[in-house]
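hey all, quick one before standup. I had two proteins in the batch that finished overnight and I want to keep them in one place so we stop losing track of which output belongs to which input. First protein below, input sequence then structure tokens straight from the run.
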Amino acid sequence: MITLLGIPFDFQGLSYYRTDKNIEIGEQVIVKTDHGTYLGTVKKMRVATEEELNSPDFDTTFPAIERIATYSDKALDRVAKQRAIALTKDTQKQANSLNLGMKVLSSYFDCEDNKALITFTSETRVDFRELVKILTGMYRIKIELRQIGPRDQARLVGGIGPCGLPLCCTTFLTSFDGISIAMAKNQLLAINIPKLSGQCGKLMCCLKYEDDAYQKIRPLYPKIGEKFTYNKSQYEVTGLNLLTDTITTYNGENYESFTKEEFERVKKGLTKTDEKPVMYKDINSGVDLSGHGISDTNNRIAQIKRNEERRKEEKERNNQQNQKGSGKQNNSQNNNTFQKNKDRNNRPNNQNNRNNNSPRNNQQRKNTFRNNPHKSSSSSSGFIPVSQIQDKSVLDVKPIKNDDKK
């Protein structure tokens, strides 16, 4: 199985190389680039598709790796990075002495140690032939100077974009495509160059990602400024939002919003929406108030009236039962009191016991009654028997006024 390895380089971005070996992400390999042989780290992996395998330039598009980096390769790479720092400083020093007006970014020594790549930026075209001669004489190797643009500089430096993610050019982009202001206009974005520009100062590459989709969808919507008649008034299209399917119009006084389907209906002289019966419900009673279900509404109102009458009858029945229960309770209490008095009178006198009619015993009974009143006492519980209520009108419960209109 052929695996494609994504290996990024500062001077050329992310490139894919093929291999049939078992390699994992994070391993270092030796590969050949357009600027020499360098040591790179595997950042991405994927399996080659059948379409890619059957392509005639598969070997050219995805060159094979040279080898997996050995311990000596890694040691030489560390030494080369230290030498590259010194080369960068020397190059900048010589460029300043020659007044070339260039800014040296970085330098790279290849694994074979016979070539060095130097990248720089400049606002104008630079004639660096004299500088190359000086550096070749100093290091005795082949020197390649490469002027890069603002985008390559941003990819080399790296950073975080307005979206909060790492720059696309430092993560997955392998080449830079042309970005025009027409892409922003096609996506109905406000033409604000500072907000549409990335860290490189150029238009953001992400403007191209959705441009194809907008090119297909945009012709289906009306143009800004298109006029039409709606509700006997002249409207003009003032705004579009393709993501929410919203068309904003203005007639000089009020704004009106349409969906694409509603806009097409209005242009044909039809209503904004298709007229269909809608069931409106009252949140208080749950009754259908639309003209579509009059019979259901009447049945529901009648059911509510029957329920109220049934509740009224149940309350009256409960009141009558309470009156009967209280009368029986009073009779039983009177019978019990009479029986106790009768037993007390028939109880034989015991000479050992004290006289019950003595003033001292009477005083004790009064104190006991005050401290422990009878459970059925109305003064302690606050309950008044129905039989003792003279005005029975207070027991009638008035029903809630029924609003027949609802």
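OK second protein, same deal, sequence then tokens:
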Amino acid sequence: MNTTGNFRILNSRNLGAGIMESFMQTATGGTVQYTLADYNLGHSWRIHYQGGQQERTLKFSGNTTDSAFQIRGNTGNAKFRYKLAIGSDEAHASSVLDVQSTRAGVLMPRMTKAQRNAIQNPATGLMIYQTTDLPGLRMWNGSHWVRFSELTDD
């Protein structure tokens, strides 16, 4: 596709309009890739599917090397550069994650003590809700799982 706004049907079965690839099918090393809405002129955004490895991508970026927002299906990861606000227009200046709601809370991952102990190399500050052996909130302090002191608050 080019930057002049032309409409083209390419020999490679690609269809494009404007400066954005509307739909593109390519083969890389025998793997079929489908790309819908791919744009890149120093800035990047795309919706992408790669057949052989089940990759799915939704990416918006300030440039091609620094993704501001990216979700990749085959890794199960979502990357948000800077801050993420949920339930608000923007995150508080002191936070990287700002969740606001007057009707619901944040639900920590729930697991048994055995599942908790199977976490390899937990990050300091990792939090979970333990469902067995004195159920409650736990946090990894860098060397041990620590139980939050819990008092009834009715």
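Flagging for whoever picks this up: Residues 1-24 have pLDDT under 50 and may be disordered. The longest strand covers residues 31-40.
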